[in-house]
Design goal:
73 residues; elongated; single chain; 4 helices; mainly alpha; 66% helix
Length: 73
């Protein structure tokens, strides 16, 4: 896939991923956007471990939801 996606696009997706948070969106919408950005960002090439992805996802959730997720770990 990497050979067909411009580097500037993957860089932009990585920036958006770094800034992503749930805000006022639903968990489903946040999850969909998160997965899209991970898939197309340059970090998807292996630079970000699974644990780092999980942490980024959790810390991007609204506080009350992130807390509930943390309690389940």
């Amino acid at each position: 896939m990497g050979q067909y996606v411009p580097e500037s696009f993957t860089f932009q997706m990585g920036r958006e991923l770094g800034e992503l948070n749930q805000g006022r969106t639903s968990v489903a919408e946040y999850t969909m956007k998160f997965n899209e950005l991970v898939r197309f960002s340059s970090v998807a090439a292996g630079a970000l471990s699974e644990r780092a992805k999980m942490n980024k996802y959790r810390y991007g959730l609204r506080g009350d939801i992130a807390h509930a997720v943390s309690l389940q770990n």
